[in-house]
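job 3f2a | input accepted
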Amino acid sequence: MTIKKDDAITNIIYDFENLSNIVLEQLDYMEHFITSGDIVVSDEVSAYIKRNEKEIDKKEVKLSDKIVNTIVLYKPVASDLRRIIACYRIVISLERIGDLVVNITNFIQKIKTPEVYEKLQEVLSNMTILSIRMVRKSLLSFLNDDKEFAIWTIKNDVVFDEINHKLMKKILAKTNTAESNKHLLMSIVTIKEMMSNIERIADHATNIAEAAIYSIEGKDVRHHKLEE
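job 3f2a | predicted structure (228 res):
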């Protein structure tokens, strides 16, 4: 029974790493077209992102089933159970990150005033880079049992909020002069939606980091002030 349980958990982590790599690939594509400043996403890249999203959905369902079956069949306890539960929580966040990448890809192609995007693009790029770095570090914190990476991710959520506030001020400044320009208003609304989706990616990175700490220490730090 122990050997079968260990094999089942090893298989879960293997599938988890595959799912994580696909999500990280999606984020790499997103980072490229946001930091490039280009508001045109090629049909090839857009189609590839959509294919990856379907694969993410399939793997999320398959992996969730494996986790439930492993708990039911082998009744893991202590650290094994924590790791599996944490993995389940992270899988949900990874699937939602995949959805957000598709949303952002669609939003960027709706921007009708490139000059507005150009003025806001630097801060938007900084948000994107930080959110993706948070996702990478949070995943490493789980896979490597690295609490420091988890703490870094959670604490950088505050930094992310500051960047978000800075971009919001720029958007509001633009809105004051936009009443008579339909395209400008639509672009501002679209960029705001992009910003909200990038913010959610950072939120999911924090969720992953919290799950990693639960796996490592058995502590549920959600809704609590983090102590090192």
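job 3f2a | The mean pLDDT is 88.
job 3f2a | closed
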